[in-house]
């Protein structure tokens, strides 16, 4: 019952009392009792109203955000990686925001806003290469970012400097992305499973790799990890048996080893890469390894933005064509 209704009821009951008292057919004592009863009713109704309010609020929250599903939007950014994730209770995560140039930030912000979001609860940037971070300045300028995770590695480039400055200007500090860190992400489980070491020869191997799980469904977000980090993950104690694999390094043959696929056993895979890119991504060897295992693979260069919806039991896919 709404507060408005309760007040209407108080008003009606008061009028009834006034009439009764006015008619002189009821003693002052009875009126006193009547008021006590009225107070009781209102208190009861108020407590009911609180309960109902809470339920209504929960329903609204669920309906407007994720509807109890975990959604992974692999945004078609050309040659690069930008992913927007909506947790099962509506919390939001950005996992990389980079493309061929800094205009990728505009694409990502417009996409996120078109879905009705203005806030990023958690941003994860995997490693310092431009195709993963060059959209960051626009992100931090136009969206409210609550926290940012990034591995302990720097890079001597203007793009990296712009990225670090954008984080600082937003009044944020990097939280270190390394294996074992559990990211607060509402009801969705989010854990960083790599990097497992402090130093690598290859910048790609620093990639912050995140496992997201919602009930019985899960996804592994891998940045650009290569053989070295893959091997560490394979040898780690982490349960990396997932349903969906965001294929490392845009489908480069330097990653997605047979052993990594044996460890992760995905039923589905998504590759983020640009059409006719100069690297030849995804490499045919990777496609062959995925095909051999009957892993259903979706590629942004062919389909545009790919949305995976994990409902806790199964995974469904939709696309937003170019
Ligand atoms: Zn990359």
Summarize the model shown:
This protein has 322 residues and is an alpha/beta fold. The protein is 37% helix and 22% strand.
Write the layout of secondary structure elements.
Blueprint: H1 3-22, H2 28-64, E1 70-74, E2 81-86, E3 92-98, H3 104-114, E4 119-120, E5 122-124, H4 130-133, H5 136-142, E6 144-145, E7 148-150, H6 158-169, E8 174-176, E9 189-194, E10 209-214, E11 217-221, H7 227-235, E12 244-246, H8 258-264, E13 268-271, H9 284-292, E14 296-299, H10 300-303, E15 305-310, E16 315-320
Parallel strand pairs: 3-5, 4-6, 5-7, 7-8, 11-12, 12-13, 13-14
Antiparallel strand pairs: 1-2, 1-15, 2-3, 9-10, 10-11, 15-16
For the structure shown, list the relevant keywords.
322 residues, alpha/beta, Metallo-beta-lactamase, Chain A, 2 domains, eight-stranded mixed beta sheet, six-stranded mixed beta sheet, 10 helices, binds zinc ion
Describe the structure in your own words.
With 322 residues, the chain is an alpha/beta fold. It has two domains: 3-64; 66-320, Ribonuclease Z/Hydroxyacylglutathione hydrolase-like (Metallo-beta-lactamase, Chain A), CATH 3.60.15.10. The protein contains ten helices and 16 strands. It has helices spanning 3-22, 28-64, 104-114, 130-133, 136-142, 158-169, 227-235, 258-264, 284-292, 300-303; strands at residues 70-74, 81-86, 92-98, 119-120, 122-124, 144-145, 148-150, 174-176, 189-194, 209-214, 217-221, 244-246, 268-271, 296-299, 305-310, 315-320. The model is unreliable at 13-65 (pLDDT under 50). The chain binds zinc ion (ZN).
């Amino acid at each position: 019952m709404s507060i408005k209704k309760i007040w209407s009821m108080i008003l009606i009951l008061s009028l009834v009392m006034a009439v009764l008292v006015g008619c002189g057919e009821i003693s002052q004592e009875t009126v006193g009792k009547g008021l006590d009863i009225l107070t009781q009713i209102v208190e009861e109704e108020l407590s009911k109203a609180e309960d109902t309010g809470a339920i209504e609020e929960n329903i609204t929250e669920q309906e407007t955000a994720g509807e109890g599903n975990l959604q992974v939007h692999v945004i078609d950014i050309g040659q690069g990686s930008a992913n927007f994730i909506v947790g099962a209770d509506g919390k939001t995560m950005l996992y990389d925001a980079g493309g061929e140039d800094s205009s990728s930030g505009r694409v990502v912000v417009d996409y996120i806003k078109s879905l009705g979001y203005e806030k990023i609860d958690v941003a994860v940037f995997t490693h310092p290469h431009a195709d993963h971070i060059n959209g960051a300045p626009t992100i931090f300028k136009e969206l409210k970012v609550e926290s940012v995770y990034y591995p302990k590695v720097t890079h001597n480039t203007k793009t990296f400097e712009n990225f670090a400055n954008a984080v600082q200007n937003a009044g944020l500090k990097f939280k270190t992305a390394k294996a074992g860190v559990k990211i607060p992400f509402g009801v969705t489980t989010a854990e960083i499973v790599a990097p497992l070491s402090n130093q690598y020869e290859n910048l790609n191997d620093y990639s912050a790799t995140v496992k997201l799980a919602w009930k019985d469904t899960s996804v592994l977000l891998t940045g650009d990890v290569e053989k070295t980090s893959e091997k560490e993950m394979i040898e780690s104690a982490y349960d990396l048996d997932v349903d969906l694999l965001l294929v490392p390094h845009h489908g480069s043959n330097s990653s997605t080893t047979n052993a990594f696929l044996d460890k992760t056993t995905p039923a589905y895979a998504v590759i983020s890469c640009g059409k006719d890119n100069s690297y030849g991504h995804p490499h045919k060897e990777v496609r062959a390894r995925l095909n051999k295992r009957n892993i259903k693979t979706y590629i942004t260069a062919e389909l545009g933005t790919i949305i995976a919806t994990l409902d806790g039991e199964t995974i469904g896919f939709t696309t937003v064509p170019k």
